[in-house]
């Protein structure tokens, strides 16, 4: 998956005049994520705490954590793209050091998604950070 940098995403979203355009941009970002094959969408890869189904798979190669993600909802797929821009192909330390709260604040995201989507987003971040912590030990 090839995504813009987090700063490019922040800048791109700031360019749009309204949230309808921003949502479309986020959905389009989600389309750049290839997702997981159906046989990889197993219960052990489901992220608990998400309203929609979200599957997360990780592997560590050459010190970098690479994620494969998928969702059954297009807006959530877009939100996953925002998170992947921050965390994919990073070292565990980079994942844990990244200020995701500041990133979400810059995106002004959590004011514009439902509370249940916000909770799901936090569950995804927590799972990724947990995986990063485990790969350090």
From TrEMBL:
Domain (Fe-S metabolism associated) ranges: 11-130
PANTHER family linked: SUFE-LIKE PROTEIN 2, CHLOROPLASTIC, SULFUR ACCEPTOR PROTEIN CSDE
Species of the source: Alteromonas confluentis
Family note: Belongs to the SufE family.
Lineage of the species this protein comes from: Bacteria, Pseudomonadati, Pseudomonadota, Gammaproteobacteria, Alteromonadales
Protein's recorded name: Fe-S cluster assembly protein SufE
Superkingdom of origin: Bacteria
Coiled-coil regions listed: none
InterPro entries to which the protein is assigned, alphabetical: Fe-S_metab-assoc_dom
């Amino acid at each position: 998956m090839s995504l813009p940098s987090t700063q490019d995403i922040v800048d791109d979203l700031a360019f749009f005049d309204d949230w309808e355009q921003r949502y479309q941009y986020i959905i389009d970002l989600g389309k750049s994520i290839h997702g997981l094959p159906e046989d990889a969408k197993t219960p052990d890869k489901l992220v608990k705490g998400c309203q929609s189904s979200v599957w997360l798979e990780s592997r560590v190669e050459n010190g970098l954590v690479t994620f494969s993600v998928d969702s059954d909802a297009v807006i959530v797929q877009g939100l996953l793209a925002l998170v992947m821009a921050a965390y994919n192909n990073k070292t565990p330390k980079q994942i844990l050091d990244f200020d995701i709260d500041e990133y979400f604040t810059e995106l002004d995201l959590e004011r514009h998604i439902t509370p249940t989507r916000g909770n799901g987003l936090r569950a995804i971040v927590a799972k990724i950070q947990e995986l990063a912590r485990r790969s350090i030990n």
